[in-house]
């Protein structure tokens, strides 16, 4: 049954400074929602931490942020962290990260198909298997909090043509708090209204405000963050003494 | 350097259904400990989770056996919070005060400095558990005085909803509430904008003992109630990162929460309501 559905990859961009349980919840909520539409089959989740030259205050090195995300995702069988964006020399616009991962997913699909053909060139069963193997290439959607819709209207933050490409070619999955009204942001923008079929709104019924900023502040004050971020990430932070008052000040 | 010897040792006790235990329950302990340590006056040495027994008859309450096991799995990674199954293994529902008394006596008798003066013999061999549980041994006020500082204070840890449940008719006995706040103390985790302060102000009993009630403000909204977890599970939605992974795996393996389990005790009256409503005590004004 799931086979006839559109395969879908979710991409989340951000600082992940550090990754929290909330980030991983966004993926779980999005996947549940998309599966319940009956149209999609979520095959992968990708976390793409921003590179160091993004220049955000208190941003610790990508090496650490990626290691922490890897530890946090050890227990997940469908979400992974991808270092590509963080390895770029310059800060990369979100649209370019989307394009990169879209091309990557096409490439790996092509690669798998060829591998199958070469290994079992004549068997009929293989042909059947191949045709059952993702007949359509997967869609890639940007996973984000609903507040991103608000930032689209902030002057000079986004290029209009980038927003258009995101919602036209890819699509958005926005998680919103119950009580907030993302529908309004969409209706206030002609562009978003035009492509609203490509914007999936997911309401978070269990409130969750575990922001990375909160976590860093608590760590600097020596307060417990247990059960807000995975134990393995807490040990890593302690071991390398990553978040301190100094790291918070650094630009 | 602060000398930990000058600080009052505290043990935190949380009573509840834990149906199932969630990350929120575990956070309550962390928040309370941080808060008490920040006061500079307390040293939290232990946390105890005491799941209620099946006789509580709450709707949707699954067997204590499973709830205790899940709580144990959840606290495996904690070096200070433990699960105690004494309450849940009683045949009858027990008032929270009795659970507090039991743990208080246990702490007092295990403390060598006080075992001679204050300790009450805990368990007499050959006695039935039920009787032990209902034996009335009030905690005397002087046990909290400085001369018995060797015995840790036992404080009840709760969310704001429990504080407010004090106002529900027939759920609590007024004398129990009084003894809890007078002799033990409450650590209550509240949300910003919550009216816990007002609630204390409006109750004469709570106001009188307000120095024994610690209100701890939660700095991250945490809404992971067990009710919502069960609802998500019934709908086949993910509860990952809301409950510990070991608990999630256990729930899946034993298929614990279903529409059927949700209807357990549906027609039954909650044990405390059965007990207190019988006496028709209406003077429940705090």
Automatic annotation (TrEMBL), chain A:
Catalytic activity: beta-nicotinamide D-ribonucleotide + ATP + H(+) = diphosphate + NAD(+); nicotinate beta-D-ribonucleotide + ATP + H(+) = deamido-NAD(+) + diphosphate
Alphabetized UniProt keyword annotations: ATP-binding, Magnesium, NAD, Nucleotide-binding, Nucleotidyltransferase, Nucleus, Phosphoprotein, Pyridine nucleotide biosynthesis, Transferase, Zinc
Cofactor(s) needed for function: Zn(2+); Mg(2+)
GO molecular function, one term: ATP binding
Metabolic or biological pathway: Cofactor biosynthesis; NAD(+) biosynthesis; NAD(+) from nicotinamide D-ribonucleotide: step 1/1; Cofactor biosynthesis; NAD(+) biosynthesis; deamido-NAD(+) from nicotinate D-ribonucleotide: step 1/1
Gene3D superfamilies assigned to the protein according to its UniProt record, in alphabetical order: HUPs
Compartments in which it is found: Nucleus
Record-level GO BP terms: NAD+ biosynthetic process
The enzyme's E.C. designation: 2.7.7.1, 2.7.7.18
Cellular component aspect of the GO annotation: mitochondrion; nucleus
Pfam families (UniProt xref): CTP_transf_like
CDD domains cross-referenced by the UniProt entry: NMNAT_Eukarya
Enzyme class: transferase
Statement: the UniProt record of this protein carries the keyword Magnesium: yes
Domain Cytidyltransferase-like span(s) in chain numbering: 11-217
Family per record: Belongs to the eukaryotic NMN adenylyltransferase family.
Assembly behavior: Homohexamer. Interacts with ADPRT/PARP1.
Protein name, UniProt field: Nicotinamide-nucleotide adenylyltransferase
UniProtKB/TrEMBL annotation, chain B:
UniProt cross-references to InterPro entries, sorted A to Z: Cyt_trans-like, Euk_NMN_adenylyltrnsfrase, NadD/NMNAT, NMNAT_euk, Rossmann-like_a/b/a_fold
Cofactor (UniProt): Zn(2+); Mg(2+)
Superkingdom of this protein's organism: Eukaryota
Pathway in which the depicted protein is active: Cofactor biosynthesis; NAD(+) biosynthesis; deamido-NAD(+) from nicotinate D-ribonucleotide: step 1/1; Cofactor biosynthesis; NAD(+) biosynthesis; NAD(+) from nicotinamide D-ribonucleotide: step 1/1
Domain (Cytidyltransferase-like) ranges: 13-231
EC numbers for this chain: 2.7.7.1, 2.7.7.18
Subcellular location: Nucleus
Keywords: ATP-binding, Magnesium, NAD, Nucleotide-binding, Nucleotidyltransferase, Nucleus, Phosphoprotein, Pyridine nucleotide biosynthesis, Transferase, Zinc
Pfam families, per the entry: CTP_transf_like
Example of a GO cellular component annotation carried by this entry: nucleus
Class in the EC hierarchy, top level: transferase
GO biological process, one term: NAD+ biosynthetic process
Reactions catalysed, as given in the entry: beta-nicotinamide D-ribonucleotide + ATP + H(+) = diphosphate + NAD(+); nicotinate beta-D-ribonucleotide + ATP + H(+) = deamido-NAD(+) + diphosphate
Gene Ontology molecular function: any one: nicotinate-nucleotide adenylyltransferase activity
Nucleus as UniProt keyword: yes
Family to which this protein belongs: Belongs to the eukaryotic NMN adenylyltransferase family.
PANTHER family listed in its UniProt record: NICOTINAMIDE MONONUCLEOTIDE ADENYLYLTRANSFERASE, NICOTINAMIDE_NICOTINIC ACID MONONUCLEOTIDE ADENYLYLTRANSFERASE 1
Subunit structure: Homohexamer. Interacts with ADPRT/PARP1.
NCBIfam families in the record: nicotinate (nicotinamide) nucleotide adenylyltransferase
Protein name from the UniProt record: Nicotinamide-nucleotide adenylyltransferase
Biological source species: Platysternon megacephalum
Lineage per the UniProt record: Eukaryota, Metazoa, Chordata, Craniata, Vertebrata
């Amino acid at each position: 049954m799931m086979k006839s559905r559109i395969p879908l990859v979710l991409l989340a961009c951000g600082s992940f400074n550090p990754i929290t349980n909330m980030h991983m919840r966004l993926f779980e909520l999005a996947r549940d929602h998309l599966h319940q539409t009956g149209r999609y089959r979520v095959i992968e989740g990708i976390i793409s931490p921003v590179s160091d030259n993004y220049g955000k205050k208190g941003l610790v090195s990508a090496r650490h942020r990626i290691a922490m995300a890897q530890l946090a995702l050890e227990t997940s069988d469908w979400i992974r962290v991808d270092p590509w964006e963080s390895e770029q020399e310059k800060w990369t616009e979100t649209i370019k990260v989307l394009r990169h991962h879209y091309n990557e997913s096409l490439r790996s699909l092509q690669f798998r198909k060829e591998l199958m053909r070469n290994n079992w060139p004549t068997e009929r069963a293989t042909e059947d298997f191949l045709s059952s193997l993702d007949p359509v290439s997967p869609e890639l959607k940007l996973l984000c909090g609903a507040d991103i819709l608000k930032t689209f209207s902030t002057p000079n933050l986004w290029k209009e043509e980038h927003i258009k490409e995101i919602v036209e070619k890819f699509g958005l999955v926005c998680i919103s708090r119950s009580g907030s009204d993302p529908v309004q942001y969409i209706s206030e923008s002609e562009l978003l209204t035009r492509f609203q079929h490509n914007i999936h709104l997911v309401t978070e019924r269990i409130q969750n405000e575990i922001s990375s900023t909160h976590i860093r502040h608590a760590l600097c004050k020596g307060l417990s963050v247990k059960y807000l971020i995975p134990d393995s990430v807490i040990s890593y932070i302690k071991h390398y003494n990553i978040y301190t008052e100094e790291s918070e000040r650094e630009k | 350097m602060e000398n930990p010897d000058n600080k009052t040792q505290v043990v935190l006790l949380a009573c509840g259904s834990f149906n199932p235990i969630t990350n929120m329950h575990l956070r309550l302990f962390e928040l309370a400990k941080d808060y008490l340590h920040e006061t500079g006056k307390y040293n939290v040495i232990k946390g105890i989770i005491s799941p209620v027994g099946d006789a509580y008859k709450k709707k949707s309450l699954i067997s204590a056996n499973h709830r205790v096991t899940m709580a144990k799995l959840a606290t495996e990674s904690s070096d200070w919070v433990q699960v105690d199954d004494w309450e849940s293994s009683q045949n009858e529902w027990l008032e929270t005060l009795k659970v507090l008394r039991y743990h208080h006596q246990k702490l007092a008798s295990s403390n060598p400095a006080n075992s001679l003066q204050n300790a009450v013999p805990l368990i007499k061999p050959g006695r039935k558990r039920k009787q032990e549980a209902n034996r009335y041994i009030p905690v005397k006020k002087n046990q909290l005085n400085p001369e018995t500082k060797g015995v840790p204070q036992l404080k009840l840890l709760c969310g704001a909803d429990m504080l407010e449940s004090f106002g529900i008719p027939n759920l609590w006995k007024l004398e129990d509430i009084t003894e809890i706040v007078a002799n033990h103390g409450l650590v209550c985790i509240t949300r910003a904008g919550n009216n816990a302060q007002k609630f204390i102000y409006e109750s004469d009993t709570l106001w009188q003992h307000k120095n024994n009630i610690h209100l701890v403000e939660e700095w991250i909204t945490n809404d992971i109630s067990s009710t919502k977890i069960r609802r998500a599970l019934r709908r086949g939605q993910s509860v990952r990162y809301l409950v510990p992974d070991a608990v999630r795996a256990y729930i899946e393996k034993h298929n614990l929460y279903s529409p059927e389990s949700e209807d357990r005790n549906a027609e039954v009256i909650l044990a405390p309501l059965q007990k207190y409503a019988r006496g028709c005590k209406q003077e429940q004004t705090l």
